[in-house]
Amino acid sequence: GNSVTQMEGPVTLSEEAFLTINCTYTATGYPSLFWYVQYPGEGLQLLLKATKADDKGSNKGFEATYRKETTSFHLEKGSVQVSDSAVYFCALSDPWGNNRLAFGKGNQVVVIP
Amino acid sequence: EPEVTQTPSHQVTQMGQEVILRCVPISNHLYFYWYRQILGQKVEFLVSFYNNEISEKSEIFDDQFSVERPDGSNFTLKIRSTKLEDSAMYFCASKGQEDYGYTFGSGTRLTVV
User: Fold this and answer.
1) Out of A51, A84, B50, B72, which could bridge A32 as a Cys pair, Cβ 3.0 to 4.6 Å?
2) Do B33 and A100 touch (CB under 8 A)?
3) pLDDT of B45-88, one tens digit each?
4) A13 alpha-carbon distance from chain centroid
5) How many CB atoms lie within 10 A of CB A34?
6) Min Cα separation B16/chain A (Å)
């Protein structure tokens, strides 16, 4: 079935550092790919998306490129801020299943001033 | 900006009791979902609802679970006889006609004791 795998463990880094969170997926067909962010005490918010191979999603300085050849959708940001501290979830949308989302486990990102 | 509202934010219940988790989706959305996240695990799909009926459900969504949209605005998840393993964060989401555009609520943390 469809699944998403995120790198293990929390990510702690200093302000202005480069952030990468790895995400790989397994899916039949051509899913849409998403990154969601959850700030403390809040719901899941869509950060960015890509709907086909080689699409790049971007928002708030974050980017991710839909790589069909490596089945990946890694999230990157060039210079993080303390306000980027949150949990980040990679997800895919199953086009054959009422567009239900399959999520990765999420990565806690902590940015230290 | 329109949002999905969930109540309560936290509910504690005794094992065997019935609970109802409430959600008010975005008013012009047509697709409604419940997801849950057990602490430290992935966000998991429970059920999708469209045109006043369940369109898809996961293997988690057994006879103990039910959903309802009683009045055209609220969307509820009922657990008839709660078990300890039902303790989780429950997220409601709604979606319009467009390909993306899931909007999640802030979640209800259910604790079964």
Assistant:
1) A51
2) yes
3) 999 999 899 999 999 999 999 999 988 889 999 999 999 999 99
4) 17
5) 26
6) 28
